[in-house]
Amino acid sequence: MGTKTTITSRGMTYIPADIRKRLNLKPGTKIEWIDTSDGIKIFRIPEDVINYFWGIDKGKDLMQNLYNDRKRERERE
Question: In angstroms, how far is CA 4 from the centroid of its own chain?
Fold first, then answer.
């Protein structure tokens, strides 16, 4: 069924060894926590995805990009 873990006072928990081995989760592996209506889902982020996007917005105004993206979305609606 599942394995239970406990969250510490610092908000940390551990991933059980059998899951780490099966999913090849090593120290430094990036994971993403998604809060859904069904509960929390955890996804492993492949290393090649991280490397692909590393520094993609270097030197850009990220807030201006966000505003522009939202403006385009409103115009499409």
Answer: 21
Q: What is the pLDDT of residues 25-75, one digit of tens each?
A: 889 888 889 998 989 988 887 766 555 555 666 666 777 777 888 888 888
- Say how far apart CA 31 and CA 50 lie, in whole Å: 11
Residue 9 lies in a domain: no
Cβ(38)–Cβ(47) below 8 Å:
no
**Domain boundaries, position 42:** 17-76
Q: Parallel, antiparallel, or unpaired for β 31-36 and 39-44?
A: antiparallel
Is residue 12 in a domain?
Answer: no
Please indicate, yes or no, if residue 54 is contained in any of the structural domains: yes
User: Per the structure, how many domains does the chain have?
Assistant: 1
